[in-house]
Amino acid sequence: MSNFEIEDLPYTTKTGAHLRSRGGRYTNWPAVYVLSRRREVYVGETFNLASRMDQHRRLKSDLKQLRIVLDDTFHKSVCLDLESKLITYLAGDGYTVRNRNGGITDADYYRRREYRETFDKIFEALRGLGMLRRSIQEIENSDLFKYSPFKALTPNQASVVESVAEGLFEDIEAGLSTTSVIQGEPGTGKTIVGVFLLKLLKDVADTEHPELVDGDEMFSDLFTEGYPDLVRGKRFGLVVPQQSLRKTIQRVFRTTAGLSPSMVLSPFAVGNATEKFDLLVVDEAHRLGQRASQSNGAMNTQFAEINKRLFGDDDPGYTQLDWIRARSQHQVLMLDGEQSVMPADIPRAEQKAVVEVARRGKRLYALTSQMRVRAGSDYVQYVRDVLADVPREPAGTSFVPYDLRMFDDLGEMVSAIREKDREHGLARLVAGYAWPWLSKDDLTDDALYDIEIDGQRLRWNRRATDWVDSPTSLEEVGSIHTIQGYDLNYAGVIIGPDLRLDASGRVTMDRANYFDKKGQENNRQLGIVYTDEDLLRFIRNVYGVLLTRGIIGTYVYVCDPALRERLRPYLSTAPPQLT
Q1: Contact (CB, 8 A) for 377 and 370
Q2: Which GO molecular function annotation, any one, does this entry have (predicted)?
């Protein structure tokens, strides 16, 4: 069907004239092009390459190389699609993409599937020219790709981004201080929406020529006259409570034009900031902390000092959410209360209160499209109900083609996960915190292990940050603290002896087999003693997160025999049969 060609030319002041002299497809035919210099790129599409190259000399004169993708069968829809794909994959390959983020096109068109096959060949040809360093699968499995702001949004995600941005513009113009809340279950793309929103607002703020904005872009209306003035010079930040995910997002911001790793903050960094922020987007806001024993004494001291600095006294009722509100004019909170996994997380009452404030202010938004788990939108609630003793129909074939399986032998599950990693990459073992971390004191000794089941000896993750992509991760088991917020292709979940079935047939927790010290620690500062029922809620939430990491499939091994039999009807025991 397609017979593409790629031209590789130097980009100079004479490029436009050179293309004009050649006429034909260089002045009146749809084409896609890539301008580059070292590891920086700009991707575009046009009907008139010669004129577009002249326009770019005024704004992108530092770029040195031009690659043109031409094909006799190309039309506007194909070019928009290819442009979007190239932006996404180049960003995922570590390039600093100089494009504005006006919304990646993902429209359907005639024979799109066939053109997408051609795109794969184009990517390989560009790889042969040295542009792409990794294969498509490697790029798609990378964090730079997964968290890039250059992603095609679902209609639901795009609607939320547009509504939040428009609401923010209204509030800035009115001089208000507001809190917006975006609610969404695991896999609905809360982190992606947060990153996308910040890049979009930063690009709007940096727009100097609204008249040059491409009207085909999804959010082109936000770049029109007036909007850039509202956000120009504003101070933005993204707050990520979990250390591991924070480091990952900082890497994404490092390779994204207009963004900086310094914009990705811990709650403590916000509390210690000397200048107020105009906008803070808070990812996983349910993981913000209340006053409780911190991981070290210095952080306990910091918590008190920040409270005194911001509020004049160290009232133990102040939380990190109070810091966020005190240090920013506007806040956008990404929230899912059922992903709170620690007693030190902000309490449910405060989460409900902030949701109610957003609802009254008409600043409450819902993400509903399931983007991670290919089992469909019902899967997340299904898992939560099964763990919570809520009667449900057994899974049967309802989640086909999702690969949901229970294993009776851990060795078989370990082998299956390693096989899936060879096929797809990003297959990992994860578990509840039901074993002590004995190997923590000597991370270099390969003979040490923490978990022993069915003759399998396994150890916890060596790394606390970027564990999923670490070289030894396939041989290790990740905990909730290393995996929350991340995607896997396949997750092998070990439900440990911290969750079991009691004599009355209820799912319950076993405190003696729960080894997360901070996960069960009473709150002396607030005088709170956590009951077994309190801890059961957190442990259920932990497993709810672990069981919703896998994009293609989830494999499960249950340690408690009685619980295993209870869950067996709800988990497929054979690979999905595709028809």
Answers
A1: yes
A2: helicase activity
